[in-house]
Predict the 3D structure of the following.
Amino acid sequence: MRHTYTLKINFTGGIIPPGQLQNLLEPAYQAGVRYVRFGLRQQLLMDVLADDYDTLATALKERNIAFEFDTAQHPNIVSSYPAEDVFMTDNWLSEGIYKDIFDGFAYRPQLKVNISDNNQSFTPFFTGNFNWIASPQPHFWYLYVRFPKTNVLFAWKELVFSNDIPQVTEAIEKTIWQNREQFYANDQADGENLYRTVKRQTMYISKPVAGPLELPSFRLPYYEGFNRYGDKTWLGIYRRDEQFSIAFLNDVCKLCLQTKVGQICATPWKSLIVKGIEDKNRPMWDKVLTRHQINVRHAANELNWQVEDNAQDGLELKQQLVKHLDRNDMRTFGVCFGIQTRPKSEVFGSIIIRKKPMFRFGHYEIGHLYDILYTEDFNPNSRKLFVFERNLPKSYLGEQLRRICKTYLRTRIGQQTEELFTQPVEENSISAEVKTSVFIHQCKHCQTIYDATVGEPENGIVAGTAFADLPKSYVCPLCESPKGDFVAVEKTEQLVV
């Protein structure tokens, strides 16, 4: 029997009007909710007891607040707006342009939409299905379509005018749903065909793509505490446990309304940013933080992590690993970490810690191991992943994470990646050196790897067992797809996840 439901409320682009936030926090509090969270897609999340579900749902409907319980049929439209003005300046992309685009969405997308300034690295570029990225030409945007349930990325053949982003997005999404067999969960999806179909049916202002998209190097800015910009201050608020009390948020909303701060911003790092704090009002913000005992000066190596939404085990693992890196006084500037505890979930990171079951019986999992993966050139916007270490118990993760951070830092000063990754395994590692096979095999659904040099000892398959020698009854240990759904991948190539 269900005990709680998770409620989700979208704030387009991560922009939260304080009056609107107050309007939904009141019925939530009356329904027994005391804490809320903010998700990776800049939305609000809260857990509601089953007994209070009907009461809260009725109250939200009466206030015309759109919400979902335990579903994600309408992912939030995410944007880099929270970083605008505070981390980037001197760009044509303004607050008004963002809001005009958001207001143009007359429908609720069922696929993920990202709208990003090309001159920032605070928000991810390619975690959406429709990834709009500002071009250097004012009011025109690149578009990268990632077909749903695949890693197939198609660069749209034109730049699209700002005001046409909503209708072009809707037209592409409609075409995908009408042609699911071609474009949904199809690793052979043809972007050219999609482009031609939409172009025949949709009128919009466009320009030829004059040159390749250029993105900045990843540098996550410190996004917490009071910070000056221009003649004002912005405030970043991060919570180690991801929990924001309703009492605190109510006081934040009241102070925003009192001091004419028109919006609060939710970030992809599950934090909040309040812009436009005037000097004369700074003492009032200090009082609110003090009243609720809010710390706003965490170490930078704790802020560069992403954990899935509603993943308490992932959050606990993050805290454990942060402590290990802190004890070793480890520099992590320039990288960010993602923890993935569920198959097919998505986190943004240059280093990914992926949890997987040691044994699986139907829907039950017994024991867990972890893989450490890294992106090409440690760029978190890359969708190419390489394996650093596989099949690690939790107790070995901290040391291996320290090791890969050292590897990253050495590559930054010009040492060869190949040399570093082939150095002998340290004493604390449980990994053993084995001869490298030419091919590995990868499940095309969940990207689980079968490596003949390792086998699957946990499933009775000894190291050295060739993939061809596996029985016909062999299935993916993670998603139970049949043997025929594995594809051969040259071991020197990237692993696509």
Observations:
- The two ends are 34 Å apart (CA to CA).
- Confidence is low (pLDDT under 50) at residues 416-438, 492-497.
- The chain is about 25% helix and 25% strand.
